[in-house]
Amino acid sequence: xxxxxxxxxxxxxxxxxxxxxxxxxxxxxxxxxxxxxxxxxxxxxxxxxxxxxxxxxxxxxxxxxxxxxxxxxxxxxxxxxxxxxxxxxxxxxxx
Length: 95
Description:
Blueprint: H1 2-16, H2 42-60, H3 69-73, H4 82-94
Helix pairs in contact: 1-2, 1-4
């Protein structure tokens, strides 16, 4: 799980180079990715998710899709924070 968190945070830091308003990752797992309190719009969020997805697939030699109908249908969004996204990715990798 720590490796997944690290990948997500690294991708955010890399993506910050392209953002006018930077995402503050100092909260670690509690860093808000999207929604209330988030600083990026939906287009930037989708781009960031694709970067995270590619980095995870490269690291683990898999081909998981992070943004899928399962993610969209959950009561609590897995995209809210770094921690919820990391947990969701961990579950995808374990399947």
